[in-house]
Specification:
Layout (H helix, E strand, L loop, with lengths): L4 H31 L3 H8 L14 H11 L6 E5 L10 E6 L6 E8 L5 E5 L5 H10 L7 H26 L3 H4 L9 H15 L1 H15 L1 H12 L21 H11 L4 E9 L5 E8 L11 E5 L17 H14 L4 H29 L14 H26 L11 H23 L1 H27 L12 H27 L15
């Protein structure tokens, strides 16, 4: 079926303007999302070492818990017993106390000293990984979560429209342009081929990401509507959960034995406990079954009866009903939480390719509106093209440099400041907004080279911080098992330097009538 040129033009306009409006926000979401594929190694890399004594055996967890509750009775409201302590969860018993904000909690850990006395410590969990994840979830917006979430939902819906409209635009020339990548003097054609190839061959991936992002961002109104229309005003989330059946929770090692008996192949990480309104204890088990994809990025979680050890399995992959398994598979495709490290590295590449898709879309728009120089007469480009060029350079490279800078600072901040979250945010946004200002001050062409050098400099500071930690320099530290963070940074630096070199060549040798040329300064 032949599509008329008028329809193609309408869909092309939709594709262009949706891309222009949302593309730079999606660049941040995809770049940060690629980094979050190794969120747990990043948390371990950025979490300072604990001063607590080594955790006691799991069989002694109840004795430790009793000592904690004797000195800190408020811990009974919300605590966890860790089965396998790690650098980012170093204590056997961890509890949370409410902070100043409505959803702010401070975590504490406990152990027994060499003399048998109780040791407690405020756990300073890494905020760098949390900030990068927030950049991914809320497209880098420095707004309250409730506001940013709905904006992200709108961006994800627009992103879906851009994908479908772009496919319709490409359909008439699909067979001719599918494998074309014409590199030459026609810059517009080169960027169009690159953009089309990235979008077409990763289309299924992008559709899954777009639709699941809408679900994540707008799940509250979705569930509210569902409850009102189908469940008489309220969804009973706990209908599958067995009610508490005792007065004293089982010891952690007994819970572990019973959980393993019910869930063969499921590796238990921790048990969480929380008092309900009736004063009875509710519990959950957190872990991972590598044979199934997880609905979250790194763990699976479900309820269990702390008095009998009975696990509520309906929330666990492999034990859900058909609809539940379908939904779980859909979300696992978003997080890449299946297939181990090979799939994670594949998702890193797909995330970076997605960021490149939005970046090339902006370059294509700029090149398509470039006034061509004829003869010796100088040409002044449109202000809109110059502004979008500066925004593309400043926002894209500013987010890259800002994320690297705040991660690199994670090794140095804990020994020097108290509020880690505030400082990580301050570092990121300082670099981000300074980069945007630099792009407008220097122009898109010059600032692209300079900001790429900045990004490479702060990225190489990440493995250098680990090296400093290995030698115990200035309060830094180094953990085993967090090598993916340093390896990824080392792989990224040569790429940034190569792109900076190519941008420098384009600056000197490219079209003189382009905003990317050395003469491409701000229009009068």
């Amino acid at each position: 079926m032949k599509i008329s040129s008028d329809i193609i033009k309408v869909y092309k306009d939709v594709h262009i303007w949706v891309g222009i409006i949302c593309g730079l926000m999606l660049f941040i979401a995809f770049y940060a999302g690629a980094i979050t594929m190794f969120e747990k190694p990043l948390e371990r890399w950025a979490t300072p070492p604990s001063a607590l004594a080594p955790p006691p055996p799991l069989e002694d967890a109840q004795t430790l818990l009793a000592a904690v509750l004797a000195e800190h009775p408020q811990a009974a409201k919300r605590y966890a017993i860790v089965v396998t302590p790690t650098p980012d969860q170093p204590a056997r018993v961890i509890w949370a106390e409410r902070g100043k904000g409505p959803r702010q909690f401070t975590e504490y850990g406990a152990s027994f000293g060499a003399d048998g006395s109780l040791q407690t410590e405020k756990l300073r969990k890494a905020k760098a990984a949390q900030l990068v994840d927030r950049m991914h979830q809320f497209v880098g917006l420095p707004l309250p979560d409730g506001v940013a979430r709905y904006i992200m939902g709108a961006v994800a819906l627009a992103y879906s429209v851009a994908l479908l409209s772009g496919l319709i635009v490409l359909l008439p020339t699909l067979t001719k342009d599918m494998f074309a990548l014409r590199i030459g003097k026609n810059i517009k054609r080169m960027w169009l081929d690159a953009h089309n190839a990235l979008g077409l061959f990763s289309l299924p991936f992008h559709l899954v990401i777009a639709l699941t992002s809408v679900g994540f961002a707008l799940h509250t109104p979705f569930y509210a509507s569902q409850a009102k229309l189908l469940y008489g005003g309220q969804i009973n989330w706990g209908e599958h959960e067995a009610p508490p059946t005792g007065t004293t929770p089982l010891p952690a090692h007994v819970l572990l034995e019973r959980t393993q008996a019910q869930l063969p192949g499921f590796e238990v990480y921790s048990f969480g406990f929380q008092q309900n309104r009736e004063g009875q204890m509710e519990a959950s088990v957190t872990g991972l079954d590598v044979r199934h994809g997880a609905r979250g990025r790194t763990v699976m979680q479900t309820h269990l009866d702390p008095y009998s050890g009975t696990v509520d399995t309906h929330d666990l992959p492999g034990r859900m009903d058909g609809w539940g398994e379908a939904v779980n598979a859909f979300f696992a495709l978003h997080f890449g939480s299946f297939g181990g490290n090979p799939v994670r590295w594949l998702y890193v590449l797909m995330g970076l390719a997605g960021a490149a898709l939005f970046y090339t879309g902006n370059l294509l728009w700029i090149e398509s509106r470039r006034k061509k120089q004829r003869g010796a007469e100088s040409v002044q480009q449109k202000r809109s093209a110059w502004v979008l060029g500066c925004l593309t350079t400043g926002i894209s490279l500013g987010s890259v440099a800002g994320i690297s800078a705040t991660i690199a600072a994670a090794k140095w901040l804990p020994a020097r400041v108290e509020d880690l979250e505030l400082w990580h945010q301050a570092i990121y946004y300082a670099v981000f907004f300074a980069s945007i200002g630099w792009a407008f001050a220097r122009g898109a062409a010059r600032s692209a080279v300079e900001l790429l050098w900045l990004a490479a400099l702060v990225t190489v500071a990440i493995p250098l911080s680990s090296l400093a930690g290995a030698f115990g320099i200035a309060g830094a530290w180094s953990h085993t098992g967090s090598w993916p963070v340093d390896l990824t940074a080392l792989l990224a630096v040569p790429v940034m330097l190569y792109v900076a070199h190519r941008s420098q060549l384009r600056l000197r040798q490219g079209h003189k009538d382009s905003v990317w040329a050395q003469s491409g300064q701000q229009p009068a």
